[in-house]
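Shall we go through a protein fold together, starting from nothing but its sequence? Label the sequence line and the structure token line clearly, so we can match residues to local backbone shapes. Would you write everything just below, so we can both look at the same thing?
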Amino acid sequence: LAVCLLGTNAIDRVFARRESWVTSSLMLIAAGSGFFALTIWLFGSRLFAEVTTSDAVLGPFDAAGARLDISRGLLHTSIAATLLVMLIAVAAKWPQKVAWCKWLAVVLTAVDLLAANAWLIVSLSPEMLHGNPAIASQIQGDEKLVVPPAGPPRVFRGNLASWQPPSFRKSSSEQRLAELTQWERGTLLPKFQLNQRSSLVESHGSITSADYQTLLHVAKQHGPRQRDKSLTPQPTALRLLATQYLILPSSHQVEFANRVDQASAAWPEDASLWRMNQTLPRAWIVHRVQPMPAQTGPLRRGSLEVRSREVLFPEEKARDFSRSAVVETDRPLAEWLAKIIQPEAASNSVSSHEPCRIIHDDPQRTVIEAELDAPGLLVLADAWYPGWQAVVTSNAGTREVPIYRTNRVLRGVWLAAGQHTVEFRYRPTSFYGGAAISGVSWLFLVIGGLIFATKRGKHQRG
């Protein structure tokens, strides 16, 4: 691209007779690139003979391929520079053809970009993204054997960044990117799970909640270390997030889950599926609440880690979230202050005497039916975020109640004893405020246009 821009600039300066140094530079580039292309082609095998590195995805270093690619790149540069020198010579000899030479230089630039970057354009066959991966089918079949879950099953997929099939490092393939895509889809890498009716507990991204990521980070620091030195989250955090399955490398071992036997020959390489021994439901009731002051202002990661550690592991012991909850608020209720609890041994079993059932669930609305023997906190294992509203319908009527940040990242609603229907709905004021401003702006624009058109019509008639 730089060579093409240099040549185009030289053609533009033909009449000023200042293109000679550019022409000389292009001739030098053409000759030098051609010479080095020939050198690499003749002696490249010796230069790369001792290179033995291997990439985790692309496989062993391909000396012959590297030699060919470098030679082609240098030859490509030499040809582009030579053609530009020829265009400059034509423009200098026939000034009336300068405009044509400019257009030819633009076309040459486009061809240069296409030829240099065509290998970066990778496409996959649509059939590769059809059908159900073996692990997803196994999870869905397993879910049919138990009580239908509230929403898609929740899965923790380990080693998001470092996990690759071991065979990839040992061999190379011209279809490696397609093979990698199939393997990532088969192991439910984030985004591939979206059309498999599964919900991932962890997913990295630029808009991921810092509180949520910090919670998982603290859980991993307290969890088991695997042979490859990676960390699996401590089961307390996984249970808190209603995790039902884990997808891990085959070498990983966890004591809080059972390995699920492979039911298909199409199982992805080096992958294992685990079912949690115990986990918390999507929604449950607790009667003991420990209030903590809310964190305000921009927060550094260190302070978030300290708070997550206080919530998950008070006094370095795992908290029993089936019996208690931590609510972050500056306005704690009197009932909570009377029942501040101390850390106790975890049981992770929710009482069945107070039913709590999700009867409707979609991304912007969740409805729960709950029956409480005594006042308690309804905990929903969905992300706490500004814009969510909670409406409670009971014998006392229908009213809106506050949603408390519960257990660092979840939602909680305080309910009285009795039967209740709780509706969580997403109504962000920022969205509706922006929509109102846009609507008013368009209204004024239309009215202004009509007034302008009316006055202009009267002026023309007058």
